Amino acid sequence: MTTPPPGPLPTIRPFPGSDPVASPEAAVHGDHWRVTVLQDGLFRVEWSEDGGFEDRASTFAVRRRLEVPEYTVLRRGAGVEVTTDRATLRYDGRPFSSAGLVVETSGPDANRWRYGQEARDLGGTGRTLDDVDGRMPLESGVLARDGIVMLDDSESFLFEDDGWVGSRVPGRRDVSVFAYGRDYAAALRAFHAVSGPPTLMPRWALGNWWSRYHPYSDASYLALLDRFDEERLPFSVAVIDMDWHRVESVPSRFGNGWTGYSWEPSLFPDPPAFLAELHRRGMRTTLNLHPADGVRAFEDAYPAMAAAMGVDPDTEQAIPFDPTDPDFLRAYFEVLHRPLEEQGVDFWWIDWQQGRTSSVPGVDPLWVLNHFHLLDSARDGGAGMTFSRYAGPGSHRYAVGFSGDAVVSWASLAFQPEFTATAANIGYPWWSHDIGGHTRGVRDDELATRWVQFGVFSPIMRLHSANNPFIRKEPWVFPAEPRAAMGDALRFRHRLVPYLHTMNHLAAAGTPLVRPMYHLEPHRDEAYRVPNEYAFGTELVVAPIVEPRDPVTLRGHARAWLPAGTWTDVFTGTTYAGDRFVDLHRTLDTIPVLLRAGGILPLAAPEEVDATVNPAALEVLVAPGASGSFTLVEDREDTSGQEDTGGSAGPSVADGTGACRTTLTWDRDTASFRVDAAVGDVDVVPVRRRWRVTFLGSPAAGQEAAVVRPDRFSVDLDVPTDEGAVLTLAGLPSFGVDARDAARELLEGAQAGNPEKLTAWEVVDRDVPRADRIVELETVGLPDSLRSALVELLGSVQPDGR
C-alpha cells in the first residue's frame, strides 16, 4: 500500500450541486437580521449579534440560490413584513420572540404561527431504534396539519467553500419556516430544493438483503447461498457483519476487535475470489464498520496508514479516529477502504460507535462519515451508496438508513410502519430495518412471518439477526406454514423490483416510496387516524398486520382507511369501495396490499430473480375498475447516477434522461391495454419482451385468456420493444370476489361453535341484499372477530353487484 498523494483528493469537495449563497434579490436586511425568501412558502430568518450572516452550506441547506419568488416588503420600524402568495412573515428585527416573529398562511388553510410555540408538526423520524421496544418520540418534520413548521438550523455544522467542515459563529440564529398549509407536496419540494435530492438507489439495492451477525467463512457463506438457490429464495445484497475482519484473533494488548480493516484469514483466506463469486451470482457486498478505535498496529494497512499520518510504525502507536482531521480522512479512504473496494467491496455499512462529538465544536462525526463516504463512493461519477444512521435534516442525501438493533417483539413491529412512513415528512425515503428483529425477545414464528411481509413492502428489505444461534431468519428453520409464507414474500420482493425502481426515480425527484395516507388526502381527518397504513408508490396502499392473529378466525387483522374509488387486493382479488374504513382480515400467507382502480403494477416474471438486470419477461397486474396509466422507468446499473437538475435528480421520470421509459395504459372505455414503444435509452432493455397482462377480475364472454384463478385472468403478448403492442379485450372484465365462497372458507376454518357457524352460513347464503345479511349476522351470536371478518367479505364489491 502507498501513502496518499499530497493535496486534495476527490473525497473532500463540495456536495454536487451545492450553491449555498442566495440571490441578493431574495434577501431583506436589517442591522442584526436577514430574511431570505427561498420559496413562496419558505422563509429563512437569521438573527446575528455581530451583524454578520452565514452563507456557507449547512448540513440541512446546501442550495439557497434558487429562482426568486414574487414577494412584497413593508418596513415596520426596525422590523419588516414580507408577503408572498402563500404567506406573510412579520418580524420586529429583535432577538426571536413569540411576539416578534409571526408567520400567517393564506387561503383555505389559513393559520398563524408564533416563534417558540410548542411544535405541532406531524413528526419526522429518529436517529436509531436501538433497544426501542415499541414507540419512541419522533424528531420533527416539515409538515403540520396547521400548516406552519419551523426548522431550527442554528446548531448544525457548516461546509466551507472547499467542501471541508466548519463551525458556526457563536451568537447567530438561523431558522427556516415552512408555511405551506396542507400542500404537503409543495412543502417537500421546497425542502428538497434547499436540501438537495435524495440519492437514486442502484437497482440491486431494491432486492432482498441477507444479513446476520455470525462468524461466516467464505465456504459457509457460499453454502448458504447455494441453499437459498435450492429453495428459490433470491437475494441481491450480501451483508457481511463484524466477523469479516479480525475479532477474536486481535492480540490482547490492542484491546477488543470492534474496529477492524483486515480480513480474518481463518474465515476468508482469499477475499477477492470470494467477492468475485458473489458478483458472479448477481450480488453486491457491504462490510460492517465500527471505526471509533482508529487504526492499530495489528492491521494490515497500519504501516501505510502510519506513514500517511507521520507516525513511526515501529512504535506501534495507535492512529486515533478523527474524521475532522482532513489528513486522517484522506488516508482513511485511500489507505483503509479503497484497497478493499479494489478487491470487490461495493459499499460500506457504517455502524454505531463513534458518538456525537468531535474535535471540532458542533461537528457530529456521524454526519462527517455519512457525507464523505457518499462523496468518496461517488468519486467516479455515480450516485454513490452509503448504509448508515440518520443524523438529522439533510440525511436523505446519504442513501440507505440503518435504523439499529430492533428488539424482537410485536411492539417493535407495530411501530416500524409508522416510523418508516413519517420519515417522508423530513424527505427521508430509504429506511432499512432489522427485519424480523435483531435482539432479545422470544421466538414467535407468526411475528417473524408478519415482519418479513412488512419488509417486502418497506423501502429496503434486509433480514438481520443477532449473534445468537437461536435467532434465525432462514425460512427453512421455521415450520411449514410460516416457511411457505416467508418464501412467497421473499420471492415477491424480487418480482416487485421493476415497480420499485420506477418509484426509486420518483423518490430521487422528491416523492418517497412510502408515504403516510395524509400525503394522499391531507384534508381528510380519517387519513391521520391510520398511522400504520401507507401509500407504497403511486399505485398501492399497504396495511401491514402487526398484531397476533385472532384465535377464532386464525387471521391477522388491520384497519385501513381507503380513499375514494375502488381498491383491489393484489393477493386475494377482493375489491373494496373506498371513502371509508374497512377491517381487513388475512391468513398468515398474505397481508393487505391494495391496488387502486386503474392501477397498473409491473412485476418481473416469476423466473426473473436477478435484481441487477432489467427483465426479459414481465407480468402486469391491472385493476380494471377505471382507466389508468403507468410509466415504467429502467436504466443500466452502471449509469444510474444523479445529475444536477436544479432541485430534482436525474435520470428522471419526467424527461427520461439516461433512462428507458415504457408507458403502459389501460383504457376502460375501449377495453384495451397498450404497451407503448419504449423511448429514451432503449439499449438498456431487451429488444423483445414477453408481457403477461393479468386483470384482477373475470373475463367477459368470448375472451380468450388463461384464467389463473376465479379472481384474475391473463393474456400473453410478445412485444417488440421499439414498436409496442395493443391488446383489446372482448369486453370489460367484472371484478370482485364472491363473498359466499370466501365466507364459506372462513367459516370452515374458524375455531367457533358449529351451530353458530351453520346459522351464519345460512344468513350469508341467503338471496337478499347484502345490507340485510350484514344486519342479520348481528343476531347469530358469533364471536366479534368472526362476525367482523364476515362483514368485511359481505361489504366488498361483488361480481354480480349484489
What do these coordinates show?
- By secondary structure, this protein is an alpha+beta fold.
- Helix content is 21%, strand content 22%.
- The chain is built from 15 helices and 39 strands.
- Strands 22-23-24-29-26-27 form a six-stranded antiparallel beta sheet. It has a five-stranded antiparallel beta sheet with strand order 1-2-3-13-10, with helices on one face.
- The model is unreliable at 1-7 and 639-656 (pLDDT under 50).
* Basic shape: globular
Overall radius of gyration = 28 Å
- Average pLDDT confidence is 94
Weakly predicted, low-confidence segments: 1-7, 639-656
- The strand order across the widest sheet is 22-23-24-29-26-27
Q: Tell me the β content.
A: 15-25%
Please tally the β strands and state the result.
39
Range of helix content:
10-25%
How many individual helices? Answer: 15
Largest β-sheet summary: 6 strands, antiparallel
Structural class: alpha+beta
Distance between the termini: 76 Å
Keywords:
22% strand; alpha+beta; six-stranded antiparallel sheet; disordered N terminus; five-stranded antiparallel sheet; 802 residues
